């Protein structure tokens, strides 16, 4: 990544959302970098742990297929509430506390992403494609930090739950932005637990085949490879666990696994 004015999309996931101390350090790093680089930044987030908690309280079963959450249509209002409501506002609240002018959004705002049903077997799980970034661009022009949940709407107004990695890819496509996927893990690890510095589609396929990459990581890896190809630039999967390293990451150094365009 280069020092430039191209927007940077940071996908934030995993347990980071549940730890306000980590979040505060993360937003501190973002705030500092934003001022120093004068660069627009957008956060796209999931919040699977909040959904799991809520489903547990409501005695609803959580089923996943190939790392994607099965979302029955009668449960989507609850899941949308957890992601576009609770998770989004908790993040926005923390960002505001840390001095950032945060704006909470969803994939539907301003037609940012076009969302359609991914697979009838998954229920209200959406596939997101880049849409119109004008409204998002207008918000960025004010210097604000958009925080976007991975909840979208179809053109029929149907609520859809989009995998947050895939949502971040679609937002990056709409803005022609650089993309970093931050998660609990430091990147993609090989069979011995060592970080793999860069991965091509072929290497990733072999690791998936060999069951080294499994579950939700498969979705993340496929999303990163797809983004690298669509956007024509390397995409980084890294961890939020070391906020002091984030400034390096935002300004172009690799601290995780880089996915290279084919």
Automatic annotation (TrEMBL):
The keyword Amino-acid biosynthesis applies. Its EC number is 2.7.2.8. Signal peptide: none annotated. Belongs to the acetylglutamate kinase family. ArgB subfamily. Its main location: cytoplasm. InterPro entries: AceGlu_kinase-like_sf (IPR036393), AcgluKinase_fam (IPR004662), ArgB (IPR037528), Asp/Glu/Uridylate_kinase (IPR001048), NAGK-NC (IPR041731). NCBIfam families: argB. GO terms for cellular component: cytoplasm. One of its GO terms (biological process) is L-arginine biosynthetic process via ornithine. One of its GO terms (molecular function) is ATP binding. Keywords: Amino-acid biosynthesis, Arginine biosynthesis, ATP-binding, Cytoplasm, Kinase, Nucleotide-binding, Transferase. Substrate binds at residues 47-48, 69, 161. Catalyzes the ATP-dependent phosphorylation of N-acetyl-L-glutamate. The record marks 11, 220 as: Transition state stabilizer. Pathway: Amino-acid biosynthesis; L-arginine biosynthesis; N(2)-acetyl-L-ornithine from L-glutamate: step 2/4. This is Acetylglutamate kinase. Gene3D superfamilies: Acetylglutamate kinase-like. It catalyses: N-acetyl-L-glutamate + ATP = N-acetyl-L-glutamyl 5-phosphate + ADP. It holds the Pfam family AA_kinase. Residues 8-237 form the Aspartate/glutamate/uridylate kinase domain. It is found in: Cytoplasm.
């Amino acid at each position: 990544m280069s020092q430039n004015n191209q927007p940077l999309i940071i996908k934030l996931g995993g347990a980071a959302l549940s730890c306000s101390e980590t979040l505060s350090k993360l937003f501190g790093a973002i705030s500092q970098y934003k001022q120093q680089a004068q660069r627009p930044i957008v956060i796209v987030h999931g919040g699977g742990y909040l959904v799991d908690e809520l489903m547990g309280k409501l005695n609803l079963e959580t089923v996943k297929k190939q790392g994607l959450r099965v979302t029955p249509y009668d449960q989507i209002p609850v899941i949308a509430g957890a992601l576009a409501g609770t998770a989004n506002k908790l993040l926005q609240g923390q960002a505001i506390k840390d001095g950032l002018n945060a704006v909470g959004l969803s994939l539907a705002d301003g037609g940012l992403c076009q969302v359609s049903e991914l697979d009838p077997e998954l229920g209200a799980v959406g596939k997101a494609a880049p849409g119109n970034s004008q409204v998002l661009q207008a918000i960025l022009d004010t210097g604000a930090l958009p925080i976007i949940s991975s909840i979208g709407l179809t053109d029929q107004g149907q609520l859809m739950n989009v995998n947050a990695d895939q949502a971040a890819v679609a937002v990056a496509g709409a803005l022609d932005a650089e993309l970093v996927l931050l998660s609990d893990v430091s990147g993609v690890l090989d069979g011995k637990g060592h970080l793999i510095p860069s991965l091509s589609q072929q290497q990733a396929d072999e690791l998936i085949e060999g069951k080294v990459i499994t579950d939700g990581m498969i979705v993340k890896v496929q999303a990163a490879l797809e983004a690298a190809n669509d956007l024509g630039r390397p995409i980084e999967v890294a961890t939020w666990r070391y906020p002091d390293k984030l400034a390096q990451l935002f300004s172009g150094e690799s601290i995780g696994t880089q996915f290279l365009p084919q």
